[in-house]
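TL;DR need structure tokens for one chain.
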Amino acid sequence: MASKDLTQTIEDTKELILYLEDGCKPIQACKIGTEHEKFGYDKTNLKPLPYSGVCSIKSILEGLRETFGWLPILEDDKMIGLSKAGANISLEPGGQLELSGALLDTVHQTCLEVANHLAEVKTIADRIGAGFIGLGAAPIWKDADMPVMPKGRYKLMAPYMEKVGSHGTKMMFRTCTVQVNLDYCSEADMIRKLRVGLALQPIVTALFSASPFFEGKKTGYNSYRSRIWQKTDKTRTGMLPFVFEKGFGFEAWVDYALDVPMYFVYRNGKYLNALGQSFRDFLKGELKALPNEKPIMSDWEDHLTTIFPEVRLKKFIEMRGADAGPWAKICALPAFWVGIIYNQKSLDGAWELCKDWTCSDRQQLYHDVAKFGLEAFIGNRPVKDIAFDLLNLSHQGLLKRGKRNVHETKTDETEFLQPLFEILEKGSSLADEMLDKYLTIWSGDLKCIYNEYCY
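>> reply
TL;DR here they are.
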């Protein structure tokens, strides 16, 4: 099967399994892809950037295109993204600007990519009076404040999300994350990495928690972004207990994905409404949106992007549990997971930490870290202690990789873990730091967060 041909008609579920198998790579070919989102705002009033106008998302995109040579991505003649050298800039529903980085070999490279991107964005933002900030959730804005980006899929998704979860539109319009995409070498390797990633994702949520405020108030949560996700569409989110069952593999993921309700089918530049319909029916030619037509491989690829668990499987594995944050935290996230996932000893050590956790243990931890952050427990073990063990495993894995900075031969990738070690040494996350400032030097004025933490 020519799995790379996205126009190929899908006749059988075996082709969907082969699609995932096609993601297997030798270890020397495994890459790092970092993605991060950020909120843009007008510095004069701290409101979110609208799509169009002088101080707007469109102005940011146009400035990046004209000044830094990015190529436009259009939908219905409107610029909805940019591309350059294997990287993409895209728009989340409420105008959150996302960099989907190129596939790179080292954390040094991905961190340099992030730094260059943030510098470019700041250059254009300064021209038009805009600012950008990385937080897990918008601290002040309400639903009525949020613009809607001109992307067809979001027009379909928003009303549907209101029906299937109480916080779906909050997730779409008022949250930001940082994630890293990593490769697998075989089905067995994918299984181990996916299980480790899912079980330990709540620890990452605690380490990276940076969203204690929402709609101008303290929420009582360290990661309100995580809490919002817990109250979003349960058919496509969460901790996926089936991944830990005997016999899990590519076929089991396909079975799961086939039953996640669809959002759309993309044809001739248009998003066709397939909300709530079944990809299984699509395979039979029974989709209401396209009667008597079977899906093509790009439909499957699109469908996989509409599944939002804490770890997502495509032709690679997406680690999705971290709040967005400052520049150093963006670099720390890929470093943390690369050190664990790309070193067999560290990966096995991480599995030893969590292999005896039950489904209820993992689910309780997922809920508890959103509220308590590093103060949460699993069994009798504090999350802080587990996080420290994991950081040491990651550190060992990065040391074994031995990837040096080409500009400074004395530094390896372990330098990017330092912000996380500092968090554990202080015993407080960025969310804790923000809460302390809110109660002291900010005197309860949450607007101070923009000056303090903007890029």
